[in-house]
Every structure is written in structure tokens, then in C-alpha cells.
Write a structure and sequence with these properties.
157 residues, alpha+beta, ph1033 like fold, six-stranded mixed sheet, two-stranded antiparallel ribbon, 4 helices, 20% helix
Length: 157
């Protein structure tokens, strides 16, 4: 099993929205590195749901990857803000996974606190210039953040 971090602006789509919907396509990612990261994901992998571009940003919950990478449907929809007319159905440019709600963090962990945690010194989220909407999370980072959130032990593995 691998661990990931998924960023979303809560006024666009929050952990509460995911809890309501159950599952969503993590679509609209238009960065090749982030796209390739999603291609590495496997069904059953876990990820943090991170609220970004808000005050304060931070870890809001946990999701589970519920599908393997597949073509992002928004690239073919001319009405979508993520439409990409250069992408062909026979050779899609953009890929995504579906994620399913697992848990809301009993304790929201803000970015400022994450920056103080020794276990997270190498975490991509905390490095300057790392603004990707999906990122890998190491086992060490996963364990430290899970502990800080107070999420139940059955979500830890």
C-alpha cells in the first residue's frame, strides 16, 4: 500500500462534500507530474484530503483510492473548465483516479503545525515550490500525521 495527499480548495470541493457524495472522480488535474502520480496509485491506497488556498490550510481527512487511473472525463467535455481540445479519446492526455471518503479528521491539522513536525522534514508539501495537487506521502509521514489528526487506528494501514 502507498500513501498520497490530495489537495482541494474547500470552497470548491471539501471533505464534507466528499462525505456527502461518498466517491468522486479526482478530475481537473492539469499538471503532467501530478497526472503521472495518479497513474502510480492502486485501488486501496490511502490519502490525506488537504484543504488548500484557505485559512488555515491543512489536513481535513482521509480518502481511499477506489479506481485505478482512467481517462479524466472533464478533458472531453466542452462545457468543463478543464476541457482540453487537444486531448483525443483514442489517446487521452489527462488521467485521474476516483477517491472514496474514509474519515474526517477529528482534529484538523493546519499547515503551520505540519511544518513543526520533525517526521515531515522531507515531505513534498512542505518544500518550497511544491504546489502539486496530488503528492506522495511516505509511511513515516503518514503515521505522524494520522497520529496528529486523531483518526481511528483502523484507518492507519
Amino acid at each position: 500500500m502507498k500513501y498520497w495527499l490530495f489537495k482541494s480548495e474547500p470552497d470548491t470541493f471539501s471533505i464534507d462534500d466528499l462525505e456527502r457524495d461518498g466517491t468522486t472522480e479526482w478530475s481537473g488535474v492539469r499538471n503532467f507530474q501530478a497526472r503521472n502520480t495518479m497513474k502510480e496509485m492502486a485501488v486501496g491506497d490511502l490519502g490525506f484530503f488537504y484543504h488548500s488556498s484557505c485559512k488555515p490550510p491543512g489536513i481535513a481527512g482521509v480518502v481511499r483510492v477506489s479506481t485505478a487511473a482512467h481517462p479524466d472525463s472533464t478533458q472531453f467535455d466542452p462545457k468543463s473548465e478543464y476541457h482540453d481540445g487537444s486531448s483525443k479519446k483514442s489517446d487521452p492526455k489527462w488521467w485521474c483516479v476516483d477517491v472514496t471518503y474514509v474519515a474526517t479528521a477529528p482534529r484538523f491539522v493546519p499547515l503551520d503545525e505540519l511544518r513543526t513536525m520533525d517526521e515531515l522534514v522531507d515531505m513534498p508539501l512542505l518544500r518550497r515550490g511544491q504546489r502539486l495537487s496530488v503528492q506522495p506521502v511516505s509511511v513515516r509521514e503518514w503515521k505522524a500525521i494520522i497520529k496528529a489528526t486523531g483518526i481511528e487506528p483502523n484507518v492507519r494501514t
